[in-house]
Design a protein that fits this description.
two-stranded parallel ribbon; alpha/beta; seven-stranded parallel beta sheet
Length: 295
Amino acid sequence: MDGAAKDGERARRGVAVSGSSGRVGAALAASLDAAGWAVHGVDRVPGRWTSVVGDLRDRTVRLAALQSADVLVHSAALHAPHVGRRTDKEFRVVNVDVTEGLLDDAARIGIRRVIYISSTSVYGHALVPTDRAVWVDEQLTPLPRDIYDETKLAAEELVAASAIPSVTLRIARCFLEPLPVRARHLLHRAVDVADVAAAGALAVAHPTVTGRFNISGPHLFYREDCLALHHDARALLAERAPDVLRAFSDWGWPVPGRLDRVYDSAAATKGFGYQPVRGVRQLLRDAGTMPRPRS
């Protein structure tokens, strides 16, 4: 089979994306479409990438979304901001029971691969530092602290136990936030949604890779920095990235004196070539095109 024929075969393959009208799901769908996949999105609300509008608690909706797919990318869920606003029972139904139903239906239909979108939030209480910042790689044991963490971790376990080969992406914080907050988080514990989308497409494109991977960064720090980050993050930032420190000062943004954790995505880089590019420096470059705040 020549290259053109192979490309044509890939273009005919389908990928079902749950939560395709949400911020992360839509970004994943767009990235997969650009990579040549036929996207079949499912969500409760209409969207650019959503071809099936309905509730995944309804099996007919699940089957409609999966019927033309080879791969399932499951991003639909209740999220951390819903804690306290939705009942624990609803979290379990939406985050765990729906995942179980999707996996069962996917296995019966013959889906060949599952990409599950989880969260670094599952590490929970393990993220609390003692005498140094916590280096957060996949060897850190999750210690869930709320119903969101509990249900995301439970869904991870279902995905890992499924007969379908799978990858779980534990994505870091990627909320839409005020620029100063976003910039601070991008130093050590956040990720741009475009990098999440790229990670998802890469995970789909590497069919022999399985396991759980952190998706964050790019960050400025290393494991050996954890003690210094806990005691004087500003000094280390001045040494490691004086341009970033200067930009924070120019914008009047507070510079953290202490950082509690650093997310490590090295396993994803090794496993399927994840290379995040939209870190704090890119955010600062983007911010440079906007008017400076008035003093």
